[in-house]
Design brief:
The protein contains 7 helices and 2 strands. It has a two-stranded antiparallel sheet. Strand 1 and strand 2 form a beta hairpin. The mean pLDDT is 84.
Length: 142
Amino acid sequence: MAAMTALQASLPSQHRGDISLEVQAETYQQMLGKYPFEAIKYLEVKALERCQWFPTIAECLAILREFPTRNPLAAKRDTVLRRISQEHTTRFDDAMARLAAEDAPQEWIDALPDTWKQIAETRMLLWLHPDGAYTLRRRKPA
């Protein structure tokens, strides 16, 4: 309802009788509360551009009907892809930390993705041998 408060502060109200601000706010909340934050922000911007007076609920709903809706499957796909990316980054960071701590058996190193092994070699965590194998680069005596 911060957007509605901003509209009230920016646009004058037409005379609406003795309706209290609390009743008005509750009514707007009931009618507009189901819309996502992005849609309400869109409403706020458009109402400030178009309206001379604080908009009625009908005017708000008309503006919200113009809000470009996203395909819910596309939004879900974006969320899943973002979570996969975060998981991938976390696993990569954990692998680099384990190599830096010199706490990695050879079988585990061999199972790492090739690109991770190449990055670890660049970070001087692994040795690349002429036969293409990677081994842990130890800085501490074993």
